[in-house]
Amino acid sequence: MKRVKKTNVVNECSCEQCGRVWVPRLKKPNICPSCKSTKWNQPKGKK
To answer: Per the count of CB atoms within 10 A, which of 2, 4, 19, 43 is most buried?
Structure first.
């Protein structure tokens, strides 16, 4: 029998607020690990 290696498909997340790109531990993270923004997946709004 052949041994088959399992490969994990990794999706990178990127913060729209600070630009950080990271590999999340969860499928959909709650906050950006760098800037702690809860709106990391929404584009920056105009002030």
So the answer is: 19
